[in-house]
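This section describes the prediction task in plain terms. A model, or a person checking by hand, is given the sequence of a single protein chain and must write out its three-dimensional structure as a string of tokens. No templates, partner chains or ligands are provided. The sample shown here is typical of the held-out split.
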Amino acid sequence: MKKFAVALAASLALALAGCGGGAAPTAADPAPGPAEPVVTGAATVFAAASLTEAFTEIGELFEAANPGATITFNFAGSTTLAQQILSGAPADVFASANKEQMQLVVDAGLAAGEPTVFATNTLQIVVPEGNPAGVTGLADFGKEDLKLAICAPEVPCGVLARQLFATAGVTPSVDTLEQDVKAVLTKVRLGEADAGLVYRTDVASAEGPVEGIDFPEAATEANEYPIVVLKNAPNPAVAQAFVDYVLAGDGTAVLEEFGFTTPAP
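The expected answer:
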């Protein structure tokens, strides 16, 4: 009888221990952490034309990671975009191809915080496939017998082009001034220009028979691309999440894939 009582007590102790809410998590079996935060809603991103292909892919990845979010892009020259924002166009994010156009937005009190530089880019000569005019370098942009296209002087790619001409001592003889790099690229692709100056990323992502020519002066000047959430963003949560995504690993990987240089982490 005494042995039976001892055994019964031991059984009860084990049963009570088993009802104590389960074993505590151990290092080998950690408690699950919180899920990655996701955002929902729509946001509009005003982005420089040279970002078209890279940002389109980043937008698709961002939407896949945030199934309830939608990103709409407005791609154009940074000067055009800055003026649209200053005129009250509804936008959540501004990504410029240079700091000057971004500064106009900041000075107007329309940025929600400090812009962050997320990429840099340099110019490259673009020519039709086979380079029929035999263009070899930046000096050729001073030849009057060639049909040449560059960006207008008020847009970032035009500012950069003129800085490079000044550095190289070249007096340009251009036939057309375009409002963004995509327009310059189109002129060359259609054979309406013998050569143009665009960002190297535009040549890399060009759809059509064009070739890129490197020139040593390009390394002396580069455009920095800043991005910021806008103060009057209709959806600041999605806007900030998109900016964070651009600055994070997935975003920088896409930018580098398209030929941009991204800041060191």
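For orientation: Confidence is low (pLDDT under 50) at residues 1-35.
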